[in-house]
Amino acid sequence: CHTFDKGGANKVGPNLYGVLARKIGGHEGFAYSDALKGHGGNWAFDTLDAYIADPKKAIPGNKMAYAGEKDPGKRADILVYLRSLADAPVDLPK
Questions:
Q1: Whole-angstrom Cα distance, residue 71 to residue 68?
Q2: pTM of the predicted model over 0.90
């Protein structure tokens, strides 16, 4: 559904390189739902964790066809991986 390489194409979902600290619903060239475009703020560890856990609850009305990952350990692994996808990874939460 997503690509992960720098400059990678959007697919069903947007490219996720640099997603942490990116504006929610703000990746250039991707047709986001009105729910994501209107959400406001930037993706951070807490917002991404909630979204990965339950996208429909975190941002009602979004179009992502993913039920979510309930296991906190697996979500933490996903977040660490997404953090690595950046020229300058954001600091880990304390």
A1: 9
A2: yes
